[in-house]
Amino acid sequence: MIKFRNDYLKSFITEAEIAAIQPEITTAHNTLHNRTGPGNDFTGWLDLPKGMEAQLERIAQVGQRIAGLCDTLIVIGVGGSYLGARAALEFIRGKNYNAFAEGTPTVHFVGTDLCPDTIVDLLNLCRDKSVCLCVVSKSGGTTEPAVAFRIFRQFMEEKYGAAATERIYTITDEKNGSLRALTTQRGYTSFVIPGDVGGRFSVLSPVGLLPLAAAGVDIKAIIGGAQAAKADFADASIQNNDCYRYAAARNILYRRGLTTEIMAFYDPSLAMFAEWWKQLFGESEGKGGQGIFPASVCFTTDLHSLGQYVQDGKRNLFETVLSVTQPFTDIAVPHEGGGDGLDFLSGKSLHHINTTAMEATAEAHVGGGVPNIILEVGKRDAYHLGYAAYFFQLACGVSAYTLGVNPFDQPGVEEYKKAMFRLLGKPE
Amino acid sequence: MIKFRNDYLKSFITEAEIAAIQPEITTAHNTLHNRTGPGNDFTGWLDLPKGMEAQLERIAQVGQRIAGLCDTLIVIGVGGSYLGARAALEFIRGKNYNAFAEGTPTVHFVGTDLCPDTIVDLLNLCRDKSVCLCVVSKSGGTTEPAVAFRIFRQFMEEKYGAAATERIYTITDEKNGSLRALTTQRGYTSFVIPGDVGGRFSVLSPVGLLPLAAAGVDIKAIIGGAQAAKADFADASIQNNDCYRYAAARNILYRRGLTTEIMAFYDPSLAMFAEWWKQLFGESEGKGGQGIFPASVCFTTDLHSLGQYVQDGKRNLFETVLSVTQPFTDIAVPHEGGGDGLDFLSGKSLHHINTTAMEATAEAHVGGGVPNIILEVGKRDAYHLGYAAYFFQLACGVSAYTLGVNPFDQPGVEEYKKAMFRLLGKPE
């Protein structure tokens, strides 16, 4: 469950304002669900929670096979072919997953950039490991993953010879593109990225689920969470729909000139989830000279960095706080008569102190004129990851239609590619 | 050296505009160097490059002692007591330093947040290691590091008994505060945070240098780089001063309504340097309802995420690209007749492709209406880290005075602390 808390927002937005935007939210809801809006051929993600059920068994089995074959899983992909899996892995298992992985492979992401160090370091790390590859790319033609795959394919073939084939898994388009062609030619085990699901909406497809299954995550629970979210937010009435309440609030704030939204979280294991969120909203809404700029902060860390700006800088921003109510682990501040000035915290749990810091910060930032939306997530587990993924995808679709843009294209991403291919001499 | 490149900026800012702001920059320069402005009792960082020379030998020796004593160094600190050391370590040694550290200890940062997992994971990681602590806090009273230090002090005393004393190092105020009192009482080896140097300007003091020395970094080269930067930017004339050209350009753009500055970099090992930069500028300028909001992106990764927004979203932003001209490592795209569509890149070095992506992106974003400032740094090494730290600190001081704010206070940071201490029942 995700609960929308109004207590640090109500001094900025009245219920009348929420009611006034209801017709626009209803229109956006209908446009999305009736598939009548721009980009409607990329709304397959709406049905993924139900649609994935038939595939879950096979994904789980292949995930287990990967876990049995290797101690090191390299996932090659960029953007939506990378962020969802990484965000989910850290959300569910924690950001230090690799340090504590036992019985399941460590997971390393590459093909995410063009920096030589990224590749060189990972090659060095893998020399003495037992490795599998999972390559995620709709077309196979995106430069970063294609370069990484060429290098690691060679690495695998040198290391394993013909047996490399059973250690390489691909997730790509059903029919088209160079990665599908390579898959067929070499006989790799493969999964399909549905044609009507865009990259940033693909975490609930094999794109997210196969790497997670290999890491031992309960992918049925993920899909269960997504199904629950779909059911919970089926009603377009904002009164009954915390997801649409979020979409409505951010549109109201944006129209007032609050053009930057900061996702704040108090658990570093949510950092990659915030990165996933930044792609989801930034790429969906940032077009035609419009859109809310998505930023993120890890509190309390960044209270000692960007906190000053948020409290007292230019007033063109609002915060969305992703707060996890149940701790993943906990520890108490030990008793000590050491004169360190901390005795008022002795015996208190760190999770309690952290949660108190969250409430105090919301109160302070509201006092500084920054609206705070609090989204409470029950727990950092597979179920809530699925729930949260669907929550934000749905909020994004409705929010972008309310803003008046196509949520499902990304025309601006082509510009630098055109210039790059020209400078690199790519044949037409 | 850092070179300010004008080629993706000149279509936005004329030389006449630069000349017009010269009097303000000159005034800011004089205010800073004559120490006549608000916050002038925190301008000690101006002289650190020269002032640190006398201490370098002792810092290097103690760093070596730490490296000899332990395989795992835990650095406890938050904000300016943390970001500088971490940014510098990753800048100089790469973000995967811990995976490849040989002969020098791995370095872990804690006391940076209040999430229980951070502490619990690190305790688990340290059980079988040989550990030293380096505790950085001016007062000792900041909650995050104070809590972490209480927990890890207990851990060390249980593990090492009386010998814990020689494994704990503190960096704190010369005379005041609970950490100085604990240091005296227990007999820890200690260094002084100069009273006239604020946290975000402290990386060139023992705060940054001791952890770096323990990790085997050449701290004399860092200070050498800072000294060179100080000499290079002594002249207030923008024509001869790339540092002030940067300060001038960002003020000109801000006055035009470009209120978000995105630091972009193409090497993931600069991510923490960008975090350091965000604190430096955000905390120095974000006050009184003013200031440029500092954000960062790791390209090409985030071209597949925030790239769409930057290319085509709301036009209230500009980019500052930190580009490293010499690669740290390199690797060529291997030849292969594999039909992956990449043959036009066969044999090309990844650094070349990455640099081409940078130029192409700047060209594309300029086409989308986003001014691009390119700052070229020669190399990711100790000398250039020192140079870059001084460059940005100086740019920040001059820029903030030009903006009309005190660069050296952070009044807004107290607000959430007040609320938190009230909610936690801290005695007055």
Brief overview:
The structure is a homodimer of 428-residue chains. By secondary structure, chain A is an alpha/beta fold.
Characterize the structure shown:
Two copies of one chain form a homodimer. Chain A is α/β, with parallel strands linked by helices. Chain A contains 16 helices and ten strands. Chain A has helices spanning 15-33, 48-51, 53-69, 83-93, 97-100, 116-126, 143-160, 178-186, 206-214, 219-232, 242-255, 271-285, 307-312, 350-367, 382-403, 413-424; strands spanning 2-5, 72-76, 106-110, 131-136, 168-172, 189-192, 260-265, 293-298, 317-324, 372-377. In chain A, the strands form two sheets. Chain A has a five-stranded mixed β-sheet with strand order 1-10-9-7-8, sandwiched between helices. In chain A, helix 14 (350-367) links the parallel strand 9 (317-324) and strand 10 (372-377). In chain A, helix 10 (219-232) crosses helix 15 (382-403) and helix 11 packs across helix 15 (382-403). The first copy, chain A, is globular. The termini of chain A are far apart. Chains A and B meet through helix 6, helix 7, helix 8, helix 12 and strand 8 of A and helix 6, helix 7, helix 8, helix 12 and strand 8 of B.
